[in-house]
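Bench notes, bay 3.
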Amino acid sequence: MAFAAEHDVPIPYMQRTRDYYLRLGFAPYRWAHFDEVPFTPLAKPLAQSRLALIMTAAPFQPGAGEQGPRAPYNAGAKFYKVYSDSTEGIPDLRISHVGYDRVHTTAEDPNTWCPLAQLQAFVKRGRIGALTEHFHGAPTNRSQRVTLEQDAPEVLRRCREDGADVALLVPN
């Protein structure tokens, strides 16, 4: 067994994010983390569960500038309120976020940040019982307070309304 090459190390996303906010003039970024994290095991097998998909991908906004694969960071394409859309088709979502690594990926494969087609296939093959009627978009608005007090409760309310048994979170 051989070790990986010296340069083959994890991408330092947390430090990159801290450095980015410092360059913008903000105080050092403090990642939200908790001493204890609640864990709830599945009440039934995934093949019998209704799954809710939660993403940070943004709905395409035609007048908001470049948002496609290889797009530079585009603050004009951000969204600031939780949204929901149907899981029946494949939506036109984009990721021109600040956080993803443009050196090691191109964002040309939407399945890497919007796995809806794969989840639909898993339902057809019986690996997942069903998808909820909607998927949900959670904004990345840089405020832990707004996320904890406003966005997370709203996403939870929508997941419960759709009868979700389990949720898959896909941050972009």
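Next record in the batch:
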Amino acid sequence: MAIQLCLTDEVLDVFSSEKTTVALWERLQDRYLKKSLTNRWNLKQRPFLLHMYKGIPIKSHIADFSIINELDKLDVKIEDEDQTLLLLCSLPSSFKSFSEVIIYGGKSTIKVKKIKEVKEHLLSKKKIDN
């Protein structure tokens, strides 16, 4: 089953008894997409724990922020400004100047850009740096 190739060893151990793709998918959905307190709690903390480490491509790091979409499916809303701040805080210190420009925009007052704009700036910055 193709789904099994995408699972970590720990998850695979738990669900290895499933014989069909449909049964596996239903159990995975039941376990990870339920709106239970535990799932919401686990998903809510993930954006705060994300950190871009040296050598990780920016595109890959931005893809990790898809966790926001998972939260949205559980009716947990993170405002656009907060998403931007979470992304900027997850960047390494080498992005400090970039983060300051995004937050202050050359002014003394804070005006955080939309998350979509920040992602676009990060991706275009990486193209320029290469």
